[in-house]
C-alpha cells in the first residue's frame, strides 16, 4: 500500500489512487579503490594459459668484480642460472541468476547492472588478496610505530631511504596507505604544496584512481584493501618492478537455467602474483587511532 499522509474523515481513505513509483535509476554504490596495475608489472601476463599453469622467469646472473694484481692468475667465475616461478594458482568466480518473469517485468537492464557490480567486486577481492600478502615478502621491515600527524612525514621518508639503500630506481616508486594515514598526511606540514613536489596541495578535492599525491619520490595510493587487525595497518611501499601480477578472465558467460525459466551469468578469473625483488618492497606497519 502507498504511504499516505494522515487524514480525517472517509474521503478517499485508502489511498488506492496514489501510485507507487519505482525509479529507473539505481541508488549510488561505492566501491573500494583498486590500482594493482599501477603498483605491479604485468610483464608475464601474456604467457599464462590458465589456472595451474606456471611461468618460469630466468634471473639475470650477477657477475663478480674483484681486485686485480699484475701477473696474477685469473680465476673465472662459475655463473649460476637461477629462476623464479610465477604460478597461476588463484581463482575467483561469481555466479548469479535472474528469472525470465523478473527480467521481462523489470524496467532496467538488471543483468547488465549485476554484471557491472560483479566486475567491481572481482577487482576489489583480488586487490585484498594481493595487498594482504605481498608485505610479508618485503626485504625491509620497518619497526611498528603509532602514527600521528607529527611523525607521518618521517615515516614516509624512512621508506624512501630504505628503497634508496637497496639501489631501487627512483622512478615508479609507490606506497599504499590507509585512509586514516592519508588523513594524517593531509593534516601534517605536507598540506603546504611547496613541500610535496607535486602540482597540487596534498589536501585535494578528489583522488585520481586512489592517488593522493607524491611525497619524497613515493606516489601515494589510498586503499581500504590493506590487511589490518584492529587499528594495525599493514602499509607497504615499493617499486613497480618488485611485484609481478598476471590475470586472465577465463570465462564470462550467460547460460540458460536447466530447471527454471531464467538466465544465469557466471564468471571465472584465474590469476597469480609473485614478489620478484624483495629488496624492492618495504613493509611499514603502523597503528593509527
Give the SSE layout.
Layout: H1 36-39, E1 54-58, E2 83-87, E3 90-99, H2 100-105, H3 110-134, E4 140-141, E5 145-146, H4 152-165, E6 173-177, H5 179-187, E7 211-215, E8 218-222, E9 228-229, E10 232-239, E11 243-256, E12 262-275, E13 281-287
Parallel strand pairs: 4-13, 5-13, 6-8
Antiparallel strand pairs: 1-2, 3-12, 6-10, 7-8, 9-10, 10-13, 11-12
Describe this structure in words.
This protein has about 290 residues and is of the alpha+beta class. The protein has five helices and 13 strands. The strands form three sheets. Strands 4, 5, 6, 7, 8, 9, 10 and 13 form an eight-stranded mixed β-sheet that branches. It starts with about 35 loop residues before the first helix and ends with a strand.
> Secondary-structure element sequence?
HEEEHHEEHEHEEEEEEE
**What is the domain total for the residues?**
1
Tally the beta strands. Answer: 13
Broad shape: flat
Instruction: Provide the residue-averaged pLDDT.
Output: 81
Number of helices: 5
Radius of gyration: 27 Å
Strand content: 25-35%
Which structural category fits the helices and strands?
alpha+beta
Helix content: 10-25%
Query: Main beta sheet, described?
Result: 8 strands, mixed
Which residues sit in consecutive blocks of at least 5 with pLDDT less than 50?
A: none
Amino acid at each position: 500500500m502507498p504511504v499516505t499522509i494522515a487524514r480525517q474523515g472517509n474521503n478517499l481513505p485508502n489511498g488506492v489512487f496514489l501510485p507507487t513509483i519505482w525509479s529507473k535509476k539505481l541508488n549510488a554504490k561505492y566501491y573500494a579503490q583498486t590500482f594493482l596495475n599501477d603498483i605491479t608489472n604485468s610483464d608475464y601476463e601474456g604467457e599464462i594459459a590458465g589456472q595451474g599453469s606456471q611461468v618460469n622467469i630466468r634471473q639475470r646472473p650477477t657477475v663478480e668484480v674483484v681486485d686485480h694484481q699484475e701477473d696474477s692468475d685469473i680465476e673465472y667465475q662459475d655463473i649460476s642460472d637461477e629462476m623464479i616461478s610465477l604460478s597461476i594458482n588463484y581463482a575467483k568466480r561469481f555466479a548469479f541468476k535472474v528469472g525470465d518473469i523478473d527480467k521481462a517485468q523489470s524496467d532496467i537492464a538488471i543483468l547488465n547492472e549485476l554484471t557491472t557490480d560483479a566486475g567491481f567486486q572481482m577487482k576489489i577481492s583480488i586487490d585484498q588478496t594481493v595487498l594482504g600478502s605481498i608485505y610479508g615478502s618485503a626485504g625491509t621491515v620497518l619497526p611498528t610505530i603509532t602514527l600521528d600527524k607529527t611523525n607521518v612525514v618521517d615515516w614516509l621518508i624512512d621508506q624512501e631511504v630504505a628503497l634508496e639503500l637497496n639501489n631501487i630506481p627512483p622512478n615508479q616508486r609507490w606506497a599504499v596507505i590507509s585512509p586514516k594515514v592519508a588523513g594524517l598526511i593531509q593534516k601534517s606540514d605536507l598540506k603546504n604544496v611547496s613541500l610535496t613536489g607535486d602540482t597540487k596541495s596534498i589536501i585535494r578535492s578528489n583522488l585520481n584512481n586512489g592517488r593522493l599525491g607524491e611525497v619524497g619520490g613515493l606516489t601515494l595510493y589510498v586503499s581500504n584493501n590493506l590487511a589490518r587487525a584492529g587499528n594495525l595497518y599493514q602499509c607497504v611501499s615499493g617499486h613497480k618492478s618488485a611485484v609481478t601480477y598476471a590475470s586472465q578472465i577465463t570465462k564470462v558467460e550467460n547460460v540458460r537455467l536447466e530447471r527454471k525459466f531464467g538466465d544465469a551469468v557466471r564468471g571465472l578469473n584465474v590469476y597469480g602474483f609473485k614478489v620478484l625483488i624483495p629488496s624492492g618492497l618495504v613493509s611499514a606497519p603502523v597503528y593509527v587511532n
